[in-house]
Design brief:
Layout (H helix, E strand, L loop, with lengths): L1 H52 L5 H5 L7 H7 L37 E7 L2 E13 L13 E11 L12 E8 L7
Antiparallel strand pairs: 1-2, 2-3, 3-4
Length: 187
């Protein structure tokens, strides 16, 4: 009887040890995968910043001639919906396959419909949800309540899984850059 109890105890200890080893191994794998996901998500965020950098600083500049205007006159012509939420949102930007709206200026991406951006590696494809916020900022990089020559663009990136699995990234990747309007040179 004692031998049976000792054998049962030994089996319980072996199973507990095996289970804790497996749990630790799964945690290491999840941490490693989250690190890889962070790297890919960061690359997507940088790609989005570069995409916005190619756009016009303001939609007003696309359809208006600035010849003979001072920088103050130009800046006062830029879009400003209200002092808190500077730009209209909800566009579905066609460049990101998130809709059919032309997003030709930086502010067009503000609060756009969430875009799902693929990241292809060899035969695997990972998907990331991308959200973008745009706001005017002052010389110190603080949110401004009026038009300025600087806009802060914040890109939020989070992994998403078609099967509905929970994202590996606990927090979205946040990348912010300030774009500044440069007056055209008079040559």
């Amino acid at each position: 009887m004692q031998q049976t109890l000792l054998a049962l105890l030994a089996m319980m200890i072996a199973v507990t040890f095996s289970y804790s080893t497996q749990v630790r191994y799964v945690d290491v794998q999840r941490t490693t995968m989250a690190g890889e996901m962070r790297e890919m998500g960061s690359a997507v965020a940088v790609e989005m910043i570069e995409l916005l950098r190619e756009r016009a600083y303001d939609a007003w500049l696309l359809s208006n001639d600035t010849d003979g205007m001072t920088s103050s006159q130009i800046i006062s012509s830029f879009e400003l919906k209200d002092p808190v939420d500077h730009f209209s949102g909800g566009r579905g930007c066609d460049v990101l396959d998130a809709g059919s709206d032309d997003c030709e200026a930086v502010e067009h991406f503000h609060n756009m419909e969430t875009a799902q951006v693929p990241f292809v590696i060899s035969v695997d494809t990972f998907y990331f949800d991308v959200d973008i916020r745009v706001q005017y900022v002052d010389e110190m990089g603080q949110p401004a309540s009026n038009r300025t020559s600087s806009k802060e663009v914040t890109v939020l990136v989070r992994d998403t899984w078609p099967s509905g699995l929970e994202p590996l990234l606990r927090e979205p990747i946040r990348l912010s850059r300030v774009f500044t309007y440069q007056m055209p040179s008079l040559e």
